[in-house]
Amino acid sequence: MPGTPTSRRLNRLFSVWLGVLLAVAVQAAPARADVGDVTEYPIATPESFPAGITAGPDRAMWFTESSTDKIGRITTGGSLTEYAVPTEASFPFDITQGPDRALWFTEGAADKIGRITTAGAVTEFPLPVAGSFPTGITLGADRALWFTENGTNKIGRMRLDGTVTEYAIPTPDSFPYHIAAGPGGVWFTELIAGKIGRVDSFGNVTEYPLPTGFEFPSDIAAGPGGMWFTASDQIGRITPSGSLTLFPRPNPGGGADGITRGPDGNMWYADQFGHIGRITPTGAITEFPVPGGPDKVPFNIATGPDRNVWFTELLGNAIGRLQALPGREAGPNAAAPQPTPTGTRHERPRRLLPCGTAKPPTAASFCR
Hints:
Elements: H1 5-23, E1 38-42, E2 50-55, E3 60-65, E4 70-75, E5 80-84, E6 92-97, E7 102-107, E8 112-117, E9 122-126, E10 134-139, E11 145-149, E12 154-158, E13 164-168, E14 176-182, E15 185-190, E16 195-199, E17 205-209, E18 217-223, E19 226-231, E20 234-238, E21 244-248, E22 256-261, E23 267-271, E24 275-279, E25 285-289, H2 293-296, E26 298-303, E27 309-313, E28 318-322, H3 361-364
Antiparallel strand pairs: 1-28, 2-3, 3-4, 4-5, 6-7, 7-8, 8-9, 10-11, 11-12, 12-13, 14-15, 15-16, 16-17, 18-19, 19-20, 20-21, 22-23, 23-24, 24-25, 26-27, 27-28
């Protein structure tokens, strides 16, 4: 049931977990040349806390501004536009391209799924149960939008007319987080339960426990050999049959979050402790430091139409672009990388995000 004492405790636990990640500060290393070069584009609205990001049908990147109720659009040349979400304090979080040349996003605190056209027109669809708190969202093979409901412990499916079907997750209070289409249905992470789940086309839910149950799986994406996911200081892969492999990261610390398939066929991920990582199908990992990255908190990641990877900086209030292929440029309109003094830190006050604080809603919105 939504709003139970157990779910409230789990949401507070997630708030503390996210707050701890945002509070860590370590020294950033110099950026590498060529592959790994980073360009950053500041967001006009201060303290917007950009979260989810995806490529749009218009060859631009679209992202959510979780604390300012806006959806952002940035071209591969760095031109940025922001669009307001009608519902205040709605906590727009994840975003995906729909089957209708529009972008669809979750509004966790408003219990809504939003839709925005490439012209900026927003429509909102309320979910049937209060306290559902939708978080992750993806486009399924059935041309419907699938999303996680961590408040009701369910997976939701929405048709383009707003009709919703929900599927209960067997493990109570599992905290379903991110979701992605893949072999045999849609796959999702259970952040608190330490499991990977799958819903097939008939609505059957299967869960695959991780070895200890304390891996805290976060984002998930389809890639070579199955589904790839981030799990704190490891990157995981699960085959369609449920066989699991975990690859330890070279810079452990529990910060790996967003993951996507890159233009080079490898998987790329964002590490909240200041790196963008690349893992090959055989498990070889390279991590590229983001200048001042530990203070900026690289959060989610997506492959762009320019064949680079783009990521959100949760505290840096910027969108980053990392060159993913050697000797390639982002295009004739690409902005030059912004200089960052080598070996220096971005001096910004550190933020602990205790439950109940008014700003930023990135953590406070999870408090029930």
